[in-house]
Design brief:
313 residues; 5-stranded mixed beta sheet; 13 helices
């Protein structure tokens, strides 16, 4: 067993996994898994810079995570930063802050590396299941970008495109500093147009049409699953490896896009940090399912964090 700590810092959230990894059995046993909404990517699409208040929220979460890592005595730590910090002009400020707090330099990885980690984390435990046909299409719908990976025992193709839930919300749904509530048909159409263009881009290098099982990762997908199951609270065990039909995803997406902030916030399984961006995130998922003709999505709570953890073993 090796005790590892993995941190994934994305556009909308920062997450920590401390786990014992056993390469002989392929088990990654969670000791602590947590998520904090920090919205690091606040305004990046518009300004090209990480906002001071976004950096401070992120550093506060890093201080909390440093204490957890020390408490569990993790032997190895890896901090991976994704879309927002990849795009920002002042990412050096972010790197210095993380290094001071955690003692490791964040790796601002490429979209291709991000996709590889997501695929490993999502599919390693699916090995041997005969109810899920290969190849898999793993889609990780983040805040700033979405990763597409097709593979079976190894990756056949991967691509990261800029259609995350935060980016789509800020680009198309914000008017006069506030999110349109609910969005207009024209705004929804403009998001759709961006998503379709990004899917065309992904299809240039990723054989989307070859996929036989769609595996969905990250908060937009897991929240859709929670809503589909009418959960009274967010329950990772109920969500992990649940299956949501295309018809149910379409129904939920249409409802979210018609609802007000208060109506979305009242959903029992909704994290407060996702209330404004869940509609765009669900629309990304729905559009992917339509593009590849998927009848359902298999939802995974294991994703890039688990892939980062395995990379340390």
């Amino acid at each position: 067993m090796t005790r590892v700590a993995a941190i994934d810092c994305g556009t909308n959230s920062i997450r920590l996994l401390v786990a014992d990894a056993d390469p002989d059995t392929g088990e990654l046993v969670d000791l602590d898994r947590r998520m904090t909404i920090v919205r690091l990517g606040q305004g990046v699409d518009r300004t090209g810079r990480l906002a001071p208040e976004a950096l401070e929220r992120t550093f506060a979460a890093c201080r909390e995570y440093a204490a957890v890592i020390k408490e569990h005595g993790a032997e190895r730590l890896r901090f991976v930063a994704t879309s927002a910090s990849r795009d920002a002009e002042n990412r050096d400020e972010f790197v210095r802050g993380v290094l001071d707090i955690l003692g490791v330099e964040p790796e601002v990885i490429s979209g291709g590396q991000e996709a590889e980690f997501s695929f490993t984390g999502a599919t390693r435990e699916l090995t041997g299941r005969d109810d899920l046909a290969k190849p898999y299409l793993v889609v990780d719908i983040g805040g700033g970008s979405t990763e597409f990976v097709v593979g079976d025992d190894q990756v056949r193709g991967a691509r990261s495109v800029d259609i995350g839930c935060v980016r789509m919300t800020e680009r198309h749904l914000v008017r006069d500093g506030a999110v349109t509530d609910p969005p207009t048909e024209e705004q929804i159409a403009s998001i759709r147009s961006d998503i379709e263009a990004a899917l065309d881009l992904a299809a240039e290098t990723v054989p989307l049409s070859e996929a036989r099982t769609l595996v969905g990762l990250a908060g937009s997908v897991t929240t859709v699953s929670a809503i589909a199951q009418n959960l009274t609270a967010y329950d990772p065990e109920a969500i992990h490896h649940s299956r949501v039909s295309y018809d149910r995803v379409r129904e939920i997406t249409e409802t979210l896009l018609r609802s007000t902030h208060a109506e979305r916030a009242a959903i029992p399984s909704m994290h407060p940090g996702r209330v404004d961006v869940i509609g765009a995130g669900a629309l990304v998922l729905l559009s992917i399912m339509e593009r590849i003709g998927a009848s359902e999505v298999v939802v995974s709570e294991h994703d890039i964090l688990d892939g980062i953890g395995w990379s340390l073993v």
